PRELI/MSF1 domain-containing protein
Amino acid sequence: MVKFYENSFSYDYTFPAVTLAYFLRYPNPYSTHVLSTDVIDRHVDPVTKRLHTVRLHLKRSKLPSTVLKLLPKSILGATSNDSSQAYILEKSVVDVNEGWMETESHNLEWTGVLSVVERQVYRRPLSLAATRDDASSSISSKAWNEPKVERTDVTTTVTFHSRLGQSRLLHRPHKPAPDDDPPTRRGFFQTWSTSSIQRSIEHIGVRRTRDQLVKSKEGMKIVLERLREGGLVGVLEGMRKDRETAFGGTGHAGDGGTWKRVWGGGGREQGAQQHAAADDHQD
């Protein structure tokens, strides 16, 4: 069984501003669950001049009580405080000249419980693309000071697919029981029908995604405002403050230092990646 969720909205900022903010959106006050981001690959196609990027995000989430009732913690890998961590693979393609960006993100873990694929299309409206001048293709002070010169439309489509219990059903041998056999004790997956569990998990995924998209949009607005007010320096300063707010003065989450490793030992690499993203958008 598969469920879909679709949502469309617009940012009152130029397309170059929105696409740059997309690559600089973590961390922000609405994304404290994102523990780290790594760029796996980034290149510009020499023929199409399109920017291709592959990134890996490590995210932490609080498991809904409904899920905990449906599934044991051992299946979900939940900790004592009902939280879990998962890697999200994100792929994106940006065409600055034509004015569009396509992204696709999907979870790499717990795909047997719920596979979530999110696709987004960022596009400069065709009416504005036809009338814009060449200067609007670059990131200039005018683009930030006049954020409503043009807008950027975003369409998000999310697909949810739960395969929970399917492998058990496919590989379970069929042995008809004699009439005189005593009733056997039913296990966890037998007390609920497979389709019922799948539908319940997919509905939970839709509700959480709807809420998360609202937070994601608000986080992007904050990053866009920081870019407009202070450029890249303003964004980096905002990131520093967000880390301190989310993880305290140490700059890392309670046990570990995931942020400490990223922004301490690996900070120079991520900073270079952010500047590379800015350079790519300026080309």
